[in-house]
Write a structure and sequence with these properties.
167 residues; alpha+beta; Trefoil (Acidic Fibroblast Growth Factor, subunit A); 7-stranded antiparallel barrel; 3-stranded antiparallel beta sheet; 1 helix; globular
């Protein structure tokens, strides 16, 4: 009798280990690397990589340029992140109109559908703007990525853009 209990216990442990490893594999498969690109069909701006520049304590604003920052995208949670240090991550967030990487978790859920980045279910509302009064005045010479569902931004030279993600 003890022999059968040991065999059943061993089988049960194998089943649990298999189930656990399957869950771990699903979790790790839900995270992938991405790069974001802004698309606008005009002579001045066509396709630009989206990168981030330091603007404050744990905050990096997103700008358009020749290169794109590699970030992580969790398909299950809709969170886009990058490491800030060994201890902290930054998350893609929208605070007021500003699209940025910050050390607090986002209130906006991001989704990638047909390579388009969507914020709370919509691919609309992203803009490239100049002269946004950012702390280091980077937007004087380059476009900063902004977001407004209503489309009422008060910055100079705002142009509607579509954001695509390359996985």
């Amino acid at each position: 009798m003890l022999f059968y209990q040991l065999i059943i216990s061993a089988l049960l442990l194998r089943v649990l280990a298999f189930a656990y490893s399957g869950t771990a594999a699903k979790t790790s498969n839900s995270v992938c690397e991405i790069k974001l690109y802004a698309h606008l069909f005009s002579p001045e701006m066509e396709d630009f990589g989206i990168y981030n520049l330091h603007e404050g304590a744990g905050i990096n604003y997103m700008f358009l340029g020749s290169g794109a920052t590699t970030m992580s995208y969790d398909k299950m949670t809709g969170v886009i992140s990058q490491p800030l240090s060994e201890q902290y991550d930054q998350y893609l967030v929208i605070s007021e109109d500003i699209v940025m990487m910050a050390v607090y978790e986002p209130t906006v859920k991001f989704e990638i559908k047909d390579r388009a980045l969507m914020a709370d279910g919509s691919a609309d509302g992203f803009y490239a703007c100049k002269n946004t009064s950012d702390p280091y005045h980077y937007s004087k010479d380059r476009y900063q990525l902004m977001y407004s569902k209503a489309g009422n931004l008060s910055y100079q030279s705002c142009k509607s853009v579509k954001i695509s993600a390359v996985l």
